[in-house]
TrEMBL record:
It comes from Neogobius melanostomus. SUPFAM superfamilies: S-adenosyl-L-methionine-dependent methyltransferases. One of its GO terms (molecular function) is S-adenosylmethionine-dependent methyltransferase activity. This is Methyltransferase type 11 domain-containing protein. Pfam families: Methyltransf_11.
Length: 308
């Protein structure tokens, strides 16, 4: 074990800033202004849920392309090591493979990790089970730490500190996610479909997990504000349009933690809501086949920061 990691293990929370040479006031400031949280939450453990996750969640190609374009400006690629924290079934993890010699996806859920087999096609990508707050890497060894649609579930201050610990100086931390209120477009009825989508999301809102609250965007923005790296950038909306069938759109919304909570509360109501929305979408589009293709508009938000 290196001297630095021995030091890390002896440090009180927040002491890593001092140990890594950022000075006491910098570290204390970060720690006191970190977003408040109690504990990480585990809600991606159920096998049915993770199987649907693998089936319906989309690969964030456009977002990863955008972010890697920014990283390329500052870091020679391929770089040695990227870590995708809260990787789920690896849909985003594999997209990093062309840019790094080694990519490691980490997740706390064994059930999610079992499904990474489907995304194990790249020889330089591997997966590890561990909490986001205790990453199995030595101090200062990682070029990129990312979390895609996952960091709102973590113990945020502890994760940010852990990311700082493992990153190399000059390494990159980037968090991305998207809002629940995705719109769908189809011919000249897109405005009407927007209203139908709102009807789909409204009954789910009371079931948001208290750890996440009413806005994961606000959580990720708070993490950005609390990150003390001087060089950083926040983007509040990056829209991505993708073709998707009506059925897959419904299936995707059903994988959201908030839908799962609603379903746990009343599975019949959840089923009825999905069926009603599917039928309303199809009626508005004047089609009958649920595999009819629509365009889904996803509003991503992200930040990127460079460890000094
Ligand atoms: C919404 S999923 C995102 C998965 C994947 N990154 C994607 O974009 O499809 C969130 C993931 O974070 C994981 N997760 C939640 N809390 C965690 C923690 N404290 N440590 C590690 N993983 C965690 C969950 O198990 C889940 O797989």
């Amino acid at each position: 074990m290196s001297n630095l990691s021995q030091t890390w293990q002896r440090l009180p929370r927040g002491g890593v800033w001092k140990a890594l040479g950022l000075g006491c006031s910098f570290g204390a400031h970060f720690w006191q202004n970190s977003p408040k949280t109690n504990m990480a939450v585990r809600c991606y453990e159920d096998k049915d849920h993770t199987a649907d996750y693998l089936k319906y969640r989309l690969m964030p190609n456009e977002m990863v392309g955008k972010i890697m374009g920014m990283i390329k400006q500052k870091m020679p690629l391929p770089a040695p090591l990227a870590v995708d924290v809260g990787c789920g079934s690896g849909q985003g993890t594999v997209l990093l493979a062309p840019y790094f010699h080694q990519v490691v996806g980490t997740d706390i859920s064994p059930s999610q990790l079992e499904n990474t087999q489907a995304n194990q096609t790249c020889p330089n990508v591997s997966y590890r089970q561990c909490p986001a707050e205790q990453l199995p890497f030595e101090n200062g060894t990682v070029d990129l730490v990312t979390a895609m649609t996952a960091a709102h579930w973590f113990d945020r201050p502890r994760f940010l500190e852990e990311a700082y610990r493992v990153l190399k100086p000059g390494g990159c931390l980037t968090l991305l996610s998207y809002t629940l209120d995705m719109d769908v477009e189809y011919g000249d009825v897109s405005e009407k479909l927007k209203e139908v989508c709102k009807e789909f999301y409204a009954p789910l809102l009371p079931f948001r997990d208290p750890h996440v609250g009413s806005s994961s965007l606000q959580i990720i923005k708070d993490m950005f504000d609390s990150c003390p790296y001087p060089e950083k950038e926040w983007c509040e909306c990056f829209e991505v349009r993708r073709p998707i069938s009506v059925n897959s759109f419904i299936g995707l919304v059903q994988t959201f933690a908030v839908f799962r909570k609603f379903k746990e509360h009343d599975s019949q109501q959840a089923e009825e809501l999905s069926n009603r929305i599917r039928n309303k979408l199809l009626d508005t589009m004047l089609v009958s086949a649920p595999d009819t293709e629509i365009t889904m508009v996803t509003k991503y938000f992200y930040w990127i920061a460079w460890k000094p």
